[in-house]
Every structure is written in C-alpha cells, then in structure tokens.
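[09:14] KT: can someone run the structure on this one? pasting the chain below
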Amino acid sequence: MSPDDALSVIPDGLRNPLLTEYESIVQNYVEHRWKPSELSGGHFSEIVYTILDGYSGGTYASQPTKPPDFVGACRRLEQNADAPRSFQILIPRLLPALYEVRNNRGVGHTGGDVDPNHMDATFVLTSSNWVMSELVRVYHSLTTQQAQQVVDGLVERRIPLVWEGTNMRRVLDPKMNLRSQVLVLLATSPLETSTAELLKWTGYQNPTYFKKLLRDLHRQRLVELSKDEATVQILPPGSHQAGEIVRSANTAWGA
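[09:31] RB: done, structure tokens below
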C-alpha cells in the first residue's frame, strides 16, 4: 500500500487534519522547534480521539472535536469491548499523556513546570509515530512492520532531504552547497557532532576549508564550535536558517 492510500477509510474531514498535524510534529522536530512540535501533539491527540470515538460508535464526526473532559472521554473509550485492544486500551491511555505535554509543560499555557524541550518533543514524536502506525495497522489489516513502512513513507514525502544509514547521514540534494548541508545535518542531530564525522557526512574533500567554514559559522553564532574544534553543535539562529533551507528544498523537490 502506498502512503497516499494510508487511512483512506477515514473521512477526509478527520484524515486530512490527522496527516497535517503528524507532518507538523515531524517537521518541527527536525527543525528543533520544540514548542510547535509539542503543540501539534495536543491537536493530534484531539483528532485521534475523534477517530476512535467514531470507530467505536460507527459514525464519524465531520471534523475533530475536543471533549470538555479529555481524560474522562478517553477513559470511556475503554468501555468499547468490541474495538481492537489498541483502540480500546493502549491509545486511549496514551492520548492523555500526549495532551498533558501540550497543557502543562509550558507549551499551550504559561506556568508549566518545564519549558518546551528536546526530551518532551521526542516523546511526542515517538508516541504520535506509534499511534499513526497502529491506526494504519488496524484499518488496513497490516503487520506492524508493514504499517511502520507506510507511516515512514508519509514522513519521507515531507522531509526527503536527509537520509540516515549505519554510521552515515547524507543530504540527498546533490546541488545543495556545503554551508547549507552543514546546517541541515547539524539541525537534524539532537546532540553535538564531531567535526570529523560531519566532514564525512558531507563528502567534502578539503578539511582545511571545511574547518574555516565552521569557524565562520561559529563567528556568526549559527553553530557552537568547541575550542579544540573537535565537536560542533547547532545554535538557535542556525536551526532557524536550517528550517528555511529544509522548507525551500522541500518545495523545490515537490514535497
């Protein structure tokens, strides 16, 4: 099954918002925009709840709805004994946790006990990815592996720019200049990266010029280059520029 066919049995009024919010979670995570990624997790939870409620009741709402008591509404889904186990128990118990990140972790409202961060955004990304895979698996009677492949395809249409293999990462646009490649690779790496590894990822053959480029980016406060120049990490202005590069590249590639 192609990604375009994923969840085609769900009405467009729910399917389209679901795909939009999922892609938003992934895209914002790639760009290190933790707050928008976590905020989309809250919207994603509301949409998935509406889908599960429609599945159990046999009639889908025309658009996503937000129940007044989200936790209580998810608990009521557990009474649907005829639903698949994941629709009855697993997803209804996961959605309130996703919603809690949006509501009480400094994302949707002020006064949360922590600011938006990589750890919470990773939880949102991983959880929403699992939920999407489970929706595809149940609705299309696939294996877990097949369902994950379909969901991966949804993401690849959105961010076809960076490939990751064993001990190797590549920017797939051969026309992208070195500076842009460096920013994109660093922005999609949550931890600091060794300069030697980054050089290998770009495939660039001039280490002297490569170090000069990193120093220039460091002076521009786009990256943080360690004193021994052994490691480098993206800074917020660099992450912002990388996001613009990704969006521009996706448009050019027709993503």
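[09:33] KT: thanks! Residues 3-158 form one domain.
[09:34] RB: yep, looked fine to me
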